[in-house]
Each structure stands twice: as C-alpha cells, then as structure tokens.
Amino acid sequence: MTISTFRFEGTDRYYLNPELREIVNIAIAMEKPLLLTGEAGTGKTRLAFEISRALNLKMEEARCKSTFKGEELCYVYDTVLRLNDSRFGPGNTGRNVDNIWDYIRFGPIGRAFIAEERRVLLLDEIDKTDSDTQDNLLDVLEEGSFIIREINHKIEAKFKPIIIITSNAKRELSDPFLRRCFCHYIPFPSPEEMAIIVRLHYPDIPNPLLDACLTVFYRLREQDFEKPPATAELLDWIGALKKSNLKGPGGGKDIPFIGTLLKRTEDLLKFKGMRRKERF
User: Fold this and answer.
1) Which residues contact 17 (CB under 8 A, 6 or more apart)?
2) Looking at residues 167-190, what average pLDDT do you find?
3) 184, 188, 192, 197: CA torsion to nearest 10
4) String of b and e for 131-163 (b: at least 16 CB within 10 Å)?
5) d(C-alpha 212, C-alpha 194), whole Å
C-alpha cells in the first residue's frame, strides 16, 4: 500500500478537528515527522495510537528520557553480552560470538526501518532529551537511514514510518530539528469540543449530567491548580460517577471522587482549603 492511500479521519475514540486532520494527513502524504505540542491531556500521544489502530499499522514507541541518546533509539550493540559469551560460552542461546548481528538490538526507530511493512513511529516527549540527541536524529528521520558504526553498515527504511513526535515544551527544541518537522499546537478543547469527546466514550450520558460535569470541570481548571484536570481526568471522573450511579457531579464544596480530578497533594490541599472557606 502506498503512502498516498493512508488517510486518517479520526476514530470512534478520538475527536479530530478539521485543522488537526489537515496537518496529520499532509504529514503522512509528504512523509514528514509531525511534532505535536500542547498541554498534557490534549491527546498528543493518543493520536499516534489511534492512527495505528485506524490504519491497521503496527506501532513502535519510544518514551523519551533525559538519558536517551539518538543512537540507542536506532540500535544498541551489546558488547558486554558478547564479551561474556566469549569467556563463558553462549550456552544454548543460539548466539555466535563470531556473528556481531547476534549482539545488535534494534531500538524503536531501527525496528520501524527494518519492518517489512509501514509502521507508526511515536517519539513521545522528545523535549526530555537534550539538544545533542535531537540533532543526532535530524538526518536519521529525514533520510530514513542510519549507520551501524561497529560494522559500517547502513540501515535504510524499507518503508518510511508515519512519525508522530510529542512535546510538552519542558525544554526548547533546536531550530534545525523544528525545520524538519511539520508542527501543530493542540489547544485545550473548548466545552463544545469536550462534549463531543465525552460522548465518544460515554454515548449514553444524559445531557443534564454532561452539562453539569463540564461546568464543574472547567471551573476547577480556572482555579490555578498546579496540575489542572485534563481530558483523561474528566473521563475517569465521569466513569466513577456512572459506576456509583450518582445522578449528578456535586458542586460547590461537595465534589465526589475529587481525587480522580486533582492528583497533586498541593492541589488537593488547596481544594480542601477552598472548600472550608466555601469559595469554590
């Protein structure tokens, strides 16, 4: 299947507004990495999973860490294991110390490149890595290839993956990295959009309950909490209300299951203080 035949139109679990639909599909068609930014809970990571599910493509995922180097996302050469096998023997593992390929482990980028079919590649929270790591990935992602240095062997992508990169803007990304990506900022959903999202997960929710839940949710988001509740918290909260057969979300100083909405200790203590003063 050629890349031009892939088109993502959203799913029964993911609301795709027109602007996001356009940038997703042009990035797929032009084989460019798509960098998604926006606050936590706006669906950046979930988008990659839903593209994978909707287009029936396997996914390779890298949850980025500050210790990551660009090379290990492509491959790792296990010198320690090879040395151990050379001293004590590989046993019944089937490894051959004379065959370096038995000691090369491909990372998510490498697996996406060597796959016999197109895959979705997710580089999640790329901003946690340092600028050197990002720069090391520039040519790899653009050219669809990398070199295994130990044997000077070039790995070229059989099929360029659909690349989704996310960032929570904890650290600035380098200009050269940004130039090689299509970029899109996902704003937090409006109440109208959030109602659509909730109905994707709870299609039978009564309108009065939905309206009341959204009112409480957006009021909480206005209270300057350290970690304001996001979409995932709202969905969990509504699920808890429905599971407990509660007919309403409460309000004022009485919000059931507040721990599904607020997760930081400081925020919970702040809410309790507001509740005592009856300011909420």
Assistant:
1) 193
2) 87
3) 80
4) eebbebbbebbeebebebeeeeeebebebbbbb
5) 13
C-alpha torsion 129→133→134→137, nearest 10: -130
Classify residue 220 by burial, with Cβ atoms within 10 Å: 0-12, 13-18, 19+. buried
Residue type, 261: L
Query: Quick one: CA torsion of 140, 63, 79, 119, rounded to 10 degrees?
Result: -50
The one-character DSSP state at 117 is S
Helices (H) and strands (E) in the chain, counts: 11, 9
> How crowded is residue 263: how many other Cβ atoms within 10 Å of its Cβ?
14
Confidence of residue 42 (pLDDT cuts 50, 70, 90): confident
**Could you say which DSSP state residue 101 is in?**
G
**pLDDT range class, residue 251, cuts 50, 70, 90:** low
Is pLDDT larger for residue 173 or for residue 99?
Answer: 99
Please list the alpha-helical segments (H only) found in 79-230.
79-88, 108-114, 131-143, 175-179, 191-201, 207-221
Distances (CA, A) of 49 to 54, 93, 188, 196: 9, 34, 19, 19
Position 1 scores a pLDDT of 54
**C-alpha separations of 239 from 44, 136, 235, 260 in Å:** 22, 43, 6, 10
The predicted model gives 63-75 an average pLDDT of 86
pTM of the prediction? 0.85
Token representation of residue 197: 């999202």
Q: Are 249 and 255 in contact (CB under 8 A)?
A: yes
Reading the block at residue 227, the tokens are 């970690």
Residue that is written with structure tokens 């990571």 in the block: 45
